[in-house]
Amino acid sequence: MCTAAPSLVPALDHLILLVNDPRTSSTQRSSALERAVLVFSELGFQVVRGGTHADGLTSNVLIVFPDGVYIEIIQFEPSPSPGSGESQHDFETRRKQHWWYHCRPGWIDWCLLDGISDGAIESINENASRLRQSALQELLNKKQDDQQERARVVAPRLLYQQPQQGGRITTRGDQIKWKVSFPSPRGPGDRLPVGNVRSHVPFWCADLTPRDLRVPLTYAHHNNHSPGIAEITLLYGNDTVTKYLDVSLALHQPIQPNTLPITNDFQLVPNEIPYRLLSTPVSAIHKPDANAATNITTSSHHEALQTNRFVRVIVKVAEDPEDRRWIEEHGEGLYEVAIYVAADKLPPSGPPDGIERTTFEAGFGRIRLSPVLH
């Protein structure tokens, strides 16, 4: 058994940005992916062609950062590839079975690096199972002591599935292979529910071919001098304590529910939620741990950037009508991404205290450009 040390902070591998609607992709008149290439290039990012995934349903381009993290910009293909012999009907039937078919354009998922060879997934599943058993015992004790049939406890739902193989072919013809581990879908557990909706927690990707084929760092230089991701924000509307526990477990930073700011109806108190941390693939070589991470939990973006080791993970509770409308349309989970750019390269469309307008108006989700000296 290979079990990772629970103190290791996993590395953010990539973020996934969907730029077309799977439901209408068959009738799109122009490539949403090409439009995204143009928009992000005009913002000073170097965009590299990725390729078509092995199932032929999606294709991608990448924005690779010097720290090894990348943004995967994907679109659902309108029709089967020439020469595949597949009918349009069969192609669309397969598309409807894709795990991202029900997503809408914007940020749809996030991925951590490896998890298999380092034993992280096994360790996370064991920790989550142990916490569920503890919560179940607490629930039984409450019912015995208080005779309360509606006694409540907080327990994680997190459970990662066995890895499954995936891949794609690059525009150069290179075949890339990997294994991904997704969170189990929601379902009944042993007295307590188990499973998560995709994007509520990250999935994992372990390379079977050299990672630099999948993530070409030779393209990690940008006209806006971006060094990487500053932070990501997750938005939740209900059952927020459980979702925060699951995210903390996935990031190897477990936390006891009784230490959290919780309301009487078992929800997190907005604006009092501790943020979590991720390392990056380049810094992961040095294996940063959670104890080191706690030393910068009160530091600024710029101090965090100087270490070039951590990406902040912010958990936000939906409070106002705008947040709730967003959840109704896009669902909970990955909500907003802040990207560092050089202060003197900040475009007029990206005020330092607001959302970058060009990408937002194009339907590419919520992006903030965080100025930093270079």
From TrEMBL:
It comes from Mycosarcoma maydis (Corn smut fungus). The lineage of its organism: Eukaryota, Fungi, Dikarya, Basidiomycota, Ustilaginomycotina. Pfam families: Glyoxalase_3 (PF13468). This is Glyoxalase-like domain-containing protein. Residues 32-236 form the Glyoxalase-like domain. Gene3D superfamilies: 2,3-Dihydroxybiphenyl 1,2-Dioxygenase, domain 1 (3.10.180.10).
